[in-house]
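## tool: complex_structure
## caller: assistant
## args:
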Amino acid sequence: MVAVSPSRDRVGDERGAGTAGVHDAMPPGTGSAGRGQGPSPSPQSLRGLDWFIFFLADVQTGFGPFIAVYLTTQKWTQAQIGLVLSIGGVVGLIGQMPGGAIVDAARSERLVAGLAVATIGFCALSYAAWPIVPVVMTAATLHAAASCVLGPAIAAISLGLVGPLRIGERLGRNARFAALGNGVAAAVMGTVGSLVSSRSVFLVTFILAVPTLLALSTIRESEIDVARAHGSVPREAPEAKDTSVVQLLCTRPLLIFAASVLLLQLANAAMLPIMAGVVTTRSSNWAPALIGACIIVPQAIVALIAPSVGAKAQIWGRRPLLLIGFAALAARGLLFAMVHDPYLIVLVQVFDGITASVFAVMIPLIVADVTFGSGHFNLAQGIVGTATGIGASLSTVLAGFATDKFGSSTAFVGLAAVAMLGFATIALLMPETRQGRY
Amino acid sequence: MLGRDVRSPTNEDMGHIVDVIVDRTGTVRAAVIDFGGFLGVGSRKIVVDWNALHFGGVTDKSDSITLELTKAQVAAAPEYKEDKPIVVLGAAGNLQPLDEH
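## result:
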């Protein structure tokens, strides 16, 4: 840690400098050197990013829920479908870190994102056109791999556009448009899937790749600073110690944060699916509508409050918000264990919205904090993404087992206990990562 | 058969067929239907007796299969799991373990 501190101090100074005029010698608007002065991306680029994220939500996650139903209608057996979904899951997990590394190595984040979107579009088209084993297996693999690149790429484009000083605000806006996109995707795909056919959902996804790419093309390449997008700062001489991957892997706040994100997913991922199963058992006629509401309510909350979370992160710091996120998750687990009225369950989902808002902003924000100056922002996102994937997979297995053995109420209390462990991890181990003067 | 929609006699959505269960003689005993949920969240797999299903429109590929049970009966049935003994929901709404003959 001692070896890092001299450069860290300088890094802090650069961030703090803001628009104080330290780098007045540079022509305004270029910002390409990535110095601490606030870059000023054009409104066109910022709106392009808004819409890119909005449409991407439909393209990336829209057809996922329909794969099992669609392949069943194409006479696939449950074992084959299970295999396809597992392949997607495994690739999505092991691809996180290589995906981040690709984005770190890329000279154009926009090109990488565009190729990934085009890949997903063609995967969707292949599902619809040739639902045969080799094609579907390939498409599932490519879809998962492209998703591994897209998550880091969006954060990288954001950081490259607005810089570390205003990234909190920007990530809040990203979360808002992703939530709006997810909500619209659920509504559009749900309607198309039930009124037309599950196959048509894949065609809609392919078509929606077009506006996604158009939105991406309106983000001006010249305004995305590549060095900034990778979380690096220009230096007089390269400092091997500060920028090595090994050092990144030994960054204590990053590892503590990855561990707490694993706990978050371990507590969170199985909660809604188990609750939805309970709702289906208890209220057969209204179950689909209630489950739909349980999915939409958190998205609406994220769309509403995520930008404020981004702003508050700069004023309060990161830790208070992380604690709120975990507290809301623990409260939700306990309420799910106690509340039996299916309509009240929809209200409890407000807590899901709070947790989702906090972490949608905090995950890329804290990774940007702790990797600032390293040039490995996106690889670090891949590390946290891997923790997310492991936590989510374990959650489904462990909570499913607990539900079978001890009933859903006990499972919910167990998930709440994991959330409290996450709370304690943040409270006792996680340092505040906000840097610079504001 | 796989993927075919299942509806109640009053034309309610009862999910779709995802598997069939045969006994050792190869006789079809029951169907596994994927029931309820929204966008794949919260759906449950339920085993229903083959005799509770009616195949009036089976030759028309877009037509559905009728299940002589109510939504409440299907919702309350135990979930089908690969590592557990199979419990079949009968045409009268009764639950019984699948006897292996």
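## assistant note: The CA atoms of residues 294 and 346 of chain A lie 5 Å apart. The two ends of chain A are 25 Å apart (CA to CA). Handing back to user.
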